[in-house]
Specification:
127 residues, 2 strands, two-stranded antiparallel sheet, 3 helical TM bundles of succinate and fumarate reductases, single chain, mainly alpha, 4 helices
């Protein structure tokens, strides 16, 4: 005879704000994966020739594609920020006997993100 398991409603994650934010964060990974698949298709089309590449560019310039890119960017930024904020909680760094403050760890990650973003923007925009 199996032990009794209390049924859990499908909306359990709507009961508390922390659960809701966690589920939204998990949902953002779907958008990140879909965008990676989109980039792979884009690279594939680039290899097929100028006409396939031009049709992909036309598709990306449609209003629905622009909206989808903005939504994806929002979700991916949320995913990134929540991940960066979690990092100091799961990664304990020590210098000698002293623990590095979580703010320093998170600040270093954010600073690296900004520097890399600026470097990539500089390269893409023609330096």
């Amino acid at each position: 005879m199996s032990p009794y398991h209390r049924p859990v409603p499908k909306t359990w994650w709507l009961k508390r704000r922390a659960y809701f934010l966690f589920m939204i964060r998990e949902l953002t990974s779907v958008f990140a994966a879909a965008y990676c698949a989109f980039l792979l298709v884009f690279i594939y089309k680039l290899g097929e020739g100028a006409q396939a590449y031009a049709s992909m560019i036309d598709l990306m310039q449609s209003p629905s594609s622009i909206v989808l890119h903005c939504v994806t960017l929002t979700f991916v930024l949320y995913h990134t920020i929540t991940w960066f904020n979690l990092t100091p909680k799961i990664m304990v760094l020590r210098v000698g006997e002293e623990r590095v403050p979580p703010l320093v760890i998170a600040g270093t990650i954010y600073a690296g993100w900004i520097v890399l973003s600026l470097a990539i923007a500089w390269i893409v925009l023609g330096g």
